[in-house]
Design a protein that fits this description.
It is a single chain. By secondary structure, this protein is an all-alpha fold. The protein is 71% helix and 0% strand. The protein is built from 22 helices and no strands. The chain is globular, with a radius of gyration of 26 Å.
């Protein structure tokens, strides 16, 4: 290829970036820079997109330096890519700096910064930017409105969220076609405690005619999450069954919610069936979150042998070591059942993962106390003193 013609190199670079081969894209960019291939906005944007996909801030900063030297800082396209890189890497100060330096801003760069504020949970800063957008002659698009609703949910700003809801109904012709906006509305109402409003939005999402208006797995999962977070566990199970009747295939997130609901309602058989159906009926591989829900469910039901088998199965399938919470659930169940051998094993594994976790020592002490093992309790107290651990004193926020 002619090294003076950047087009074929840009095609290769873009192809790598779009297909998830970020490292190959960055190597291509380095090759172009070393051998003097002309670099344009297309090259810079593709390389910055590749950097942001793997959160490679250092390489992105090197590209940023090249941008400043080559005079491309005024390009809104390059600027938006830089804002997106820093936002996804949660380097918010740099993202704000780049955004402020763009002379002619557009909604894309504003949305990239809004996304960064959302990831960093800087809700107030996000709303301040939203209020500045009309002064910058920037219009609110679907992504902007979703970001505003997310900020309202984070701040529990229900009145502002309802104003945004009214605005998008007036300004957007067919809200029913935008799944993410509807999902944002459902989650906003749910996180603000208005489950009835979330249910209304969910129901309205299915009113339109044609397949494009049918509620997809994103909306169903959002509504399942609302019920799950607000303690409506029986409604979670009911809604999951309705979801299957409508022919919607649940995803991994939906299964976490419904397994958690089974955990809180003590429906052991249903929980086990759902866990098995992930693989057998839907071809999904259970992750650590799914194992954690089922292990906790079996522990609450006192079925320690099944829980331990599930723990071993999880490790055998390459999901890594269990979390402290899983071993803690097993230890708590051992305390209730008086199973000292398994309880000591669970406590040791939890302590190996988090040696400074006082709660594990307290649960093990309670297990010893239940069985009258006073010498072991004294040894445990001495061990806590050696490690400088103390039980937190109870207090009230009221």
């Amino acid at each position: 290829m002619n090294p003076k013609n950047p087009i074929p190199f840009n095609v290769i670079l873009s192809g790598f970036s779009r297909n998830g081969l970020a490292f190959n894209a960055l190597k291509t960019f380095s090759f172009m820079h070393i051998y003097g291939v002309p670099i344009d906005t297309y090259t810079l944007c593709s390389s910055l997109t590749a950097s942001s996909s793997i959160r490679n801030v250092k390489f992105g900063q090197q590209v940023h330096a090249l941008v400043a030297k080559s005079g491309w800082s005024s390009s809104v396209f390059v600027g938006s890519a830089l804002v997106d890189l820093y936002s996804k890497s949660l380097v918010i100060d740099d993202a704000e700096g780049v955004f402020d330096e763009i002379p002619e801003k557009n909604s894309v760069c504003a949305n990239a910064l809004l996304s960064g504020y959302g990831e960093a949970k800087m809700w107030l800063e996000g709303l301040k930017l939203v209020r500045k957008m009309p002064m910058l002659n920037l219009e609110y698009d679907h992504f902007t409105l979703s970001a505003i609703l997310r900020a309202c949910a984070g701040l529990s700003a229900i009145e502002f969220g309802m104003q945004v809801h009214a605005y998008l109904i007036r300004r957007i012709y067919d809200v029913g076609k935008d799944v993410f906006l509807q999902s944002s509305l459902i989650e906003m109402y749910g996180k603000c405690g208005l489950v009835g409003k979330a249910w209304q939005v969910f129901n309205l999402a299915g009113i339109g005619k044609g397949k494009e208006h049918q509620r997809d797995v994103v909306l169903w999962t959002s509504m399942l999450g609302v019920y799950g977070r607000t303690g409506h566990n029986e409604e979670v199970v009911r809604l999951y069954q309705e979801m299957l009747k409508e022919g919607i295939k649940p995803d991994e997130v939906a299964f976490v919610t419904v397994l958690s609901a089974c955990d809180h309602t003590g429906q052991v058989n249903l929980g086990v069936e759902l866990f098995k159906s992930m693989t057998h009926d839907f071809g999904l591989d259970p992750g650590p979150e799914h194992y954690s829900c089922l292990i906790d469910l079996l522990c609450r039901a006192g079925q320690l042998d099944r829980a331990l088998r599930l723990v071993n199965e999880m490790v055998h399938k390459g999901h890594g070591s269990c979390s402290v919470s899983m071993w803690g659930a097993l230890l708590s169940a051992c305390k209730d059942c008086g199973n000292i051998e398994l309880g000591k094993l669970a406590a040791q594994r939890a302590i190996d993962l988090d040696p400074q976790n006082v709660g594990v020592y307290i649960m093990l002490s309670n297990l010893y106390a239940k069985l009258g093992m006073w010498n072991e309790i004294e040894q445990l107290r001495e061990l806590m003193k050696e490690r400088g651990l103390k039980k937190d004193v109870g207090c009230s926020w009221i």
